[in-house]
Amino acid sequence: MNSCHTFHIPVMGLGYTVDSPVKVASLGISSVVALADDLLLEKMRAFYCDKFGLPYVEISSRGMDYRCDRIREYLNVLDVIVKRKWDELKQTVLDKGAEIEKFIDLLPERSEIREAFQQLKADKPDLRKAWDWVREHLMPGSIDVNIMTKLDKENYFKSEKLPQEYNDAHAALRGFATSNLRSSVVFSAGMNPYLYSYMEQFPQFFPNDKGELVKKITLKVSDYRSALIQGKFLAKKGLWVSEFRVESGLNCGGHAFATDGYLMGPVLEEFRTQRSELSDSLFAIYKQALTDKGYIVPDEAPSMRITAQGGVGTADEHRMLIEYYGMDSVGWGTPFMLVPEATTVDNETLELLASATEDDLYLSNVSPLGVPFNNVRNSTKDIEKMERAAAGRPGSPCTKQHLRLFRDDNGNSICTASIEYQRKKLGELDDSDVSPEEHAAAKQNILDKVCLCVGLSTSAQMVHNIDTRFEGKAVSVCPGPNLAWFDRIISLKEMAGHIYGRNNVISRTDRPHMFINELRMYVTYLKDKADKALHGSDPKLVRQLKGFKGNLLAGIEYYRHHFENVWGRYVSQPDLSLKQLEESAHEVLTIKLD
């Protein structure tokens, strides 16, 4: 069955959607749980086992495969809780004001299920017929999981380096594969050939004796070429990509992976026009691989969903993605950070997010990964970082160690946000012979880094009154720039109504179209890169930026045509959008690259 909703909640941080399935899956809403922080998942398992009366035995970090075990058992607990809540919903199907009416109220106004439910109540069926109706028409949201492919740190046991399958991402994949979930793993942050190849060891990713995929694969991509390359790599191994999740390179939350100037609209257009070709080309490879491996070979290509996320903020934009581009679902991430019924954010951070303006939301240098990171000013973790540096104690204690992905001079893994790393680099900088300006810039670059392993998971523990003595109470948060137009705490019913056009939770009237917002971010990004290129001597970078500029101009031309001739029913102020488009075009044309 397809989802009852045309939106999903993407992964946010390490802890902001860690228990979203408990909150929204029984209401038919799919969400994504991050698997990076096994300690957080273990603490959440203890909390929910106690809350729902489930047996709990602690999984300590002394075992060789504790990370996999913790992840698997937490996912199994989520599975049990969601199934229990779903059974409770079915039991009350005929009760007025019960949970099932909340389920129905969240659906789109013209949903066939809404009409069928009203007819069901009018028919006054017995309980058995009502249960049959629920099984036929409704389904819980999916409990999907996210693995950042780059977070694949090597691990040790009793000072001995463990085989590759014990690396962080590999262990997380094994935890999901051996869990009871029937859902998808969402791979983000690019291709990891070793991790993708590791999936071949798990029959759950191949068709069972009924031809079903118990575990499915979703790839988060930012362009069609990436989807085709990664899809072919997996298809050659007999692994089918059930969903390509297209995300804006810059207009998103968390880490931002900018494209070479390829804007979201033209990228989605390529998926729209070549969707069948993509499925057919991958299926031909997939069939041969299944034959070679001796698995059941389907007569037709399995379902391949194309979804989109990144900066969507209005019902019109949602409809455009669903109706014009043919997306199967739209990810609404950042706005849901202000919906406590769906995500888990502490009160102080909620207030910070609700009051954030465009100037407060920025693309930062704080991530130890060295990748631009969407941030909000004055988060408590950033304040803690600055206070430590001012007191002569730069860096953070490296307690969880998931981002120890860099090598020091001795070949040891280290995190660039750690005390050890920052003290060493600051000492080397002080001993170097550089100008005061270069010294100040290099020092700031070192001190910018913040401990995301702790900062992105603490909020969930604070909300549930889980002990934070190990982590502290400082919080990092990673909203996308789209948050600027959402300025208050929002109920789940209000947010669903906003997505489907029943009501509007945005009070401001000056919000540009999502595609214009993204374009502006890319113009700013290009300006910054161009300025650095003009002050350097890298011909390769200049050539790359010229291609970037050309792609932006091609994207602008695409938007000009579509705002004028195609999107009339989806854009409330087309003249304003065209004016803003021309302003951005002028900015791009004036950027000098040589």
User: Uncertain spans, ≥5 residues at pLDDT below 50?
Assistant: none
Structural classification: alpha/beta
What CATH architecture label of the largest domain applies?
Alpha-Beta Barrel
What is the CATH topology descriptor of the largest domain? TIM Barrel
In which range does the helix fraction lie?
Answer: 40-55%
Radius of gyration: 24 Å
Characterize the main sheet: 8 strands, parallel
- Structurally, the number of domains stands at 3
How many beta-strand runs?
Answer: 14
Average pLDDT across residues? 95
Strand order of the largest sheet: 1-10-9-8-7-6-3-2
End-to-end span in angstroms? 55 Å
**What sort of overall outline do the alpha carbons produce when their principal axes are compared?**
globular
What is the helix tally? 21
β-strand amount? 5-15%
What CATH first level of the largest domain would be assigned?
Alpha Beta
Structure notes:
- The radius of gyration is 24 Å and the shape is globular.
- It folds into 3 domains: 332 residues, TIM Barrel; 97 residues, no CATH class; 83 residues.
- It is of the alpha/beta class and 594 residues long.
- The strands form 4 sheets. The protein has an 8-stranded parallel β-sheet with strand order 1-10-9-8-7-6-3-2. A two-stranded antiparallel sheet has the order 4-5. Strands 11-12 form a two-stranded antiparallel sheet.
- A hairpin with a 5-residue loop joins strand 13 and strand 14.
- The termini are far apart.
- 46% of the residues lie in helices and 9% in strands.
Brief summary:
The chain has 594 residues and is α/β, with parallel strands linked by helices.
